[in-house]
Design the sequence.
């Protein structure tokens, strides 16, 4: 496989992970195929699918940049930022938005491109080294996420990356544990999402619901897991109640959805031969 083909394969895998996250159901507070019941949400979900696919060229360019650079350098971090801002603009033209997922997947794709034999914690560790550098070309204006992070002392997307994506690692562990217990794949993915939701300081939730709302969502996710997870009758009932509650309140844990997409991407990376 040529370098360009490998870059495109990584990008395609990342897009597939994001689409897989979108198609997962029932996701508490997040768009999923059940939303086809309403015309407005049908349009929203269709836009999210199209915009997910629109990320592919930008993600491939990030993989290529990492392959050319060959290391987790400040120059690579700056180039990834420039590519990401261009990709963000392109995605906006499609009518959807995946800013959080672009940040997560972009760093993980670049990390995977730097070492095609790396999997799991090795990929997140490399992403951590990339994220440790400042993006010297970034605009000076603060984002909504960074403003919320400062206001509430939350790690935010930048802090998550600089910590080596601990919630992605936690989701990978949940996927392995639930699969090993013999549960269906959708249950493994839903439990992984709930694992993220149970502890993540989601800046989107902090913005819309404040600290009390964030704690409410975290407790609800923990409750489903403590009931046995989504493979059990009690867990499914808890999931349905949490989903109804979040939709009624208009609270959406988008940060958790983006990190689940990142976990699904890393999970799908081929295991290198011994």
Sequence:
């Amino acid at each position: 496989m040529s370098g360009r083909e490998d870059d495109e394969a990584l990008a395609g895998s990342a897009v597939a992970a994001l689409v897989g996250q979108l198609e997962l159901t029932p996701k508490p507070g997040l768009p999923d195929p059940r939303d086809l019941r309403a015309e407005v949400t049908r349009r929203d979900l269709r836009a999210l699918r199209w915009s997910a696919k629109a990320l592919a060229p930008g993600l491939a360019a990030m993989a290529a940049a990492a392959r050319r650079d060959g290391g987790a350098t400040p120059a690579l971090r700056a180039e990834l930022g420039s590519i990401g801002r261009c990709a963000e603009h392109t995605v906006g033209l499609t009518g959807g938005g995946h800013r959080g997922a672009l940040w997560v997947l972009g760093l993980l794709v670049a990390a995977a491109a730097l070492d095609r034999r790396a999997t799991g914690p090795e990929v997140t560790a490399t992403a951590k080294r990339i994220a440790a550098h400042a993006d010297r070309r970034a605009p000076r204006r603060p984002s909504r996420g960074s403003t919320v992070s400062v206001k509430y002392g939350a790690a935010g997307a930048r802090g998550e990356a600089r910590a080596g994506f601990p919630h992605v690692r936690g989701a990978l562990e949940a996927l392995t544990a639930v699969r090993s217990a013999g549960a269906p794949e959708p249950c493994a993915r839903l439990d992984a999402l709930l694992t993220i939701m149970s502890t993540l300081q989601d800046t989107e939730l902090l913005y819309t619901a404040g600290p009390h709302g964030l704690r409410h969502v975290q407790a609800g996710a923990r409750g489903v897991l403590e009931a046995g997870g989504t493979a059990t009758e009690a867990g499914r009932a808890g999931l349905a109640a949490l989903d109804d509650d979040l939709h009624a309140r208009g609270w959406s844990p988008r940060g958790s959805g983006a990190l689940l997409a990142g976990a699904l991407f890393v999970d799908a990376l081929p295991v290198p031969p011994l």
